[in-house]
Design brief:
Elements lengths: L2 H20 L9 E8 L5 E8 L6 H10 L1 H11 L7 E6 L1 H15 L10
Parallel strand pairs: 2-3
Antiparallel strand pairs: 1-2
Helix pairs in contact: 1-3
Length: 119
């Protein structure tokens, strides 16, 4: 990725995250975090990865909410980011973060016996 697309990716991540937390009133988007954004080199597409902070929330429900809010999110970003054209937003569940959370839970549940002390 170029330096420019890296910078634009981070700016879009911050703006979309801010909009999801403070501007949108969709209950499907509560406790959702925007984890990563990768903008294509030609700035045509922005692949936005998200994760829910609560396991009970269905990722497909969150995806539906984000897709429904796509127009509002693009307008929010366009008003604050000076680009000729705002990339097309494509939302994806951040499977890596979900896997990390599952591994962490498994490790937490793992009962490792204490080693006997050497006297």
């Amino acid at each position: 990725m170029s330096v420019r697309s890296d910078v634009v990716s981070e700016q879009i991540r911050q703006l979309v995250s801010s909009a999801v937390h403070f501007e949108l009133r969709d209950p499907r988007l509560q406790d959702v975090t925007i984890t990563r954004v990768k903008v294509s080199p030609d700035l045509q597409f922005a692949d936005i990865r998200f994760a829910s902070l609560t396991e009970e929330r269905d990722p497909n429900l969150v995806l539906t909410g984000l897709n429904k809010a796509k127009g509002a999110l693009k307008r929010y970003v366009a008003q604050r980011l000076k680009l000729r054209k705002i990339p097309e937003f494509r939302f994806h569940v951040d499977e890596d973060l979900i896997a990390e959370q599952r591994i962490g839970e498994l490790l937490k549940d793992l009962h490792v016996p204490d080693e006997p002390s050497a006297d």
